[in-house]
Amino acid sequence: MEVPITMIKITNLKKRFGDLCAVSDLSFQVNPGEVLGFLGPNGAGKSTTMKMLTGFLSPSSGDISIFGINVASKPLEAQRLIGYLPEGAPSYGDMTVLSFLKFIAAVRGYRGSDVDARVESVINKIQLEKVLYQRIETLSKGFKRRVGLAQAIIHDPKVLILDEPTDGLDPNQKHQVRELIKNLSKDKIVIISTHILEEVHAVCTRALIISSGTIVADGSPDQLSAMSKYHQAVSLKLSQPCDAVSALKALADVDSVAVGEEPNSYVVFPVPGKSILKAVNQLLHDRDWQVEELHVEKGRLDDVFRQVTLSSAHGQSQYKLDQSVKAEESEGVV
Amino acid sequence: MNGLIVVLKRELAAYFLTPLAYVFIVIFLILSGIFTFYLGRFYERGQADLVSFFNFIPWLYLILVPAVAMRLWSEERRSGTIELLMTLPLTLFEVIVGKFLAAWLFVGLALLLTFPTWITVNYLGQPDNGVILASYAGSWLMAGGFLAVGSCLSAATKSQVVAFIMTLVICFTFVASGFPMVQDAFSHWAPVWVLDGLSVLSFLSHFDAISRGVIELRDIVYFLVMIGAWLMATGIILNMKKAD
Ligand SMILES: Nc1ncnc2c1ncn2[C@@H]1O[C@H](COP(=O)(O)OP(=O)(O)OP(=O)(O)O)[C@@H](O)[C@H]1O
Ligand SMILES: [Mg+2]
After folding, report:
1. Is the separation of the CB atoms in B103 and B14 below 8 Å?
2. How far apart are alpha carbons A326 and A231 in whole angstroms?
3. Does A107 sit within 8 Å of B89, measured CB to CB?
4. Contact residues on chain B for A54, CB-CB shorter than 8 A
C-alpha cells in the first residue's frame, strides 16, 4: 500500500515584517477532500499565510510542502497545482474578461483549442457570459471577484486557495460559489478565508481560527460550535410575559438563564454535559405557558470565534479539539 | 520560455489597450520631425544624411522612454496584480524579460515609424544607408538601456510619477557623463581613468560610436551588459519589495 501523503503540510511557519510578527509558528496539515475555512480577526495573518502558501512571500522560517513539493525550493511546480484568488481579486483592468481568461489559460500551459475549451467551461461555471467583452475595470465589484475566481479554477487545480472569495457577491452568487466549492471533486483541497461564519457551516469540513498569527482553534464546524456556551442550551420564546427566569433557574442541571433580545425570549444554559430539554418542556407543560418557539442550540460559531480570539489576545490557554474528543467533554465550554 | 512569450504578448497588446501607445507614437514622430527638419536644419545643411535626426534621438528618448518604462512595475504593484502574476507558474526571469522585451519592441516600433524621414533622404540624395542602419540599431540599443533603467526604478516604487522622474535623472546622468561639457569639467583635475570610466559608462559615447557606422562589439556588449545588469537589479528589488 502506498503511504498517503498529506497534500499540504505546514511546519513552524513564521513571517515577520520588520518588528511585527504577522505569522508566528503556525503548523497544520490539510488532507485531500478537506475544505478548510481559515478564520480570524482582521490582521490575524490569514492573507499572509496564503501568500506564503502560494509562493508570493517567502517565510521568515518554517516549511510548506504541497503534495510533497517544497514551495520555497520548487515554487513553479507548486504553483502549477494551485489555483489562487488573492485578496481583493486583482486583475488587469484594461483587459476584457475574455482576453484576461485566455491569458491565464495560456500561462497555465494550454494551447490552441484547449485554451478556448478551458475558458468556455469556466465561463459557464461562473456565469460570465454577459460580461465577456467588457473591460474588467468597468465591472461591478462582484463580477470582478467572479473573474478572479474563474481565473483561479481555470486549470482545475488540485489545491484551491481563495482569500475572501464571497466578499461583495450578491446572495445568489454566494450560494453559487458555495455550491461550486462543494462540487469540486473529493480529492481536492480548498482553503478559503472568510469573515462570514455561516459560510463555514455551509461549505467547510474543517475550520481553523487563527489570531495574532497562531492557531487558537481547529476542528470541524460542529465541533467548534460545540465549544460555545450555547451548545445544548435551550432557546424558548413565550407568547405572554410571565416570571419564567426564576422558575427556569430552579430546574435541575440548569446553570444559568439569559434573557433574549426579543421580548419574552430566554436562553437556558445547562450545566456542561447535561441535557435540559426534557425538564424545560415539563416546566412549560406544568405551568401551561404558551410557547411560540423552542429549540436546542447547536452552538454558535460567532460566539466561539469571539471567545477564542479575544481570550488569545489576553494570553489565555489555547483551545484545540481532537477528532476523538467528544464535544461534551470539551473543556472549552464556559 | 513559453511563459516569456505569453507575458510578452499580453504586455505588448496592453500598450494598445490604452491611449498611451498612440500618444507616445504620435508625440515621438512629431518631436523627431521637429528636431530633424526644423532645429536640425535638415534642408539648410544640404546633406543627404540623418545626422541631425540621430543627434536628437538621445534627448528625445530621455523624455519619452521613461514614460513607457514607468508603468512596467509601478502599476502592477499599485493595483496588486503583481500578486497574481507572481503566483502563476512563471519564473521571475520570464516575467521581467517578457515585460522588458514588450516595451523594447514597442519603442522599436515607434522608431521604425520614422521611416518616412529615411525615405526622404534617399529621395533627396544618396545617403550612406549602412550608417543609417547602424544608427537605427544604436538608437534601439540605447532605448533598451533606458528601458532597463526604467524597469528597475519602476519596480522600486508604486508611484509612476516618482518612477518617471528617477528614471529621467539616472538616464540623464548616463547620457551626460560622456558629454563634452562634463568631460571638460573633469579633464582639468581628474585622473585619466576617471575620464575613461565616465566615457565608458556613457550612453552617448557608445551611441555615437555606433552611429558613425562602425559597429564594434564592445559598444553592443556595453548596451547588452547595461540592460542585463539593470534587469537583474529589477529582480532583486522586486524580491525585496513586491509585498509592500
Ligand atoms: N507587506 C507588509 N508589510 C508590513 N506588514 C504587513 C504586510 N502585510 C501584512 N502586514 C501585517 O501583517 C498582519 C497580518 O496581515 P494579514 O493581511 O495577513 O491579515 P488578515 O488575517 O488577512 O486580515 P484581514 O481579515 O483584514 O484580511 C497585519 O498586522 C498587517 O498589518
Ligand atoms: Mg486578509
Report:
1. no
2. 13
3. yes
4. 87
pLDDT digit string, tens, across residues B105-151: 999 999 999 998 888 888 888 888 888 888 899 999 999 999 999 99
Closest CA to B167 of B15, B210, B175: B175
Which tops the pLDDT comparison, A309 or A80?
A80
Residue B131 in grid coordinates: 550608417
Judge contact between B41 and B56, C-beta under 8 A: no
Confidence of residue A3 (pLDDT cuts 50, 70, 90): low
SS3 A131: helix
C-alpha cell at B57: 534621438
Domain locations along chain B: 2-243
Q: Name the residue among A131, A133, A221, A121 with its Cα closest to residue A180.
A: A121
Nearest CA in chain B to A104: B88
Nearest-Cα distance to chain A for B141, in Å, is: 29
Q: HSE (CB half, 13 Å, CA atoms) of A221?
A: 20
ipTM tops 0.90: no
Domains for chain A: give ranges and CATH numbers: 8-225 (3.40.50.300), 234-296 (3.30.70.100)
Which residues of chain B does A151 touch, with a Cβ-Cβ cutoff of 8 Å? 84
Measured distance CA(B23)–CA(B14) in Å, rounded: 14
Cα–Cα distance for residue pair A300/B202, rounded to 1 Å: 70
Q: Tell me if A19 CB under 6 Å of ligand 1.
A: no
Pairing of the two strands A20-30 and A159-163: unpaired
Which of A47, A84, A191, A195 has the most ligand 1 atoms within 8 A of CB, as the residue to mutate?
Answer: A47
Residue B134 to residues B79, B105, B214: CA-CA distances in angstroms?
Answer: 40, 17, 8
Split at pLDDT 50, 70, 90, the class of A202 is confident
Identify which has the larger pLDDT, B140 or B18. Answer: B140
pLDDT at position B65: 93
User: What pLDDT, in 10s, does the model give residues A19-33?
Assistant: 899 999 899 999 888
Please answer whether residues A64 and A70 qualify as being in contact, where contact means their C-beta atoms are separated by less than 8 angstroms.
yes
Side-chain-facing half-sphere of A14: CA atoms under 13 Å:
11
For strands A159-163 and A82-85, give the pairing. parallel
Q: Is A210 in the pocket of ligand 1 (CB under 6 A)?
A: no
pTM of the model: 0.86
- Cα(A228)–Cα(A308) distance, integer angstroms: 10
Residue-wise pLDDT tens digits, A158-178? 999 999 998 888 888 888 888
For chain A, what is the mean pLDDT?
Answer: 85
Strands (E), chain A: 8-17, 20-30, 35-39, 61-66, 69-70, 82-85, 159-163, 189-193, 206-211, 214-219, 234-238, 254-259, 265-270, 291-296
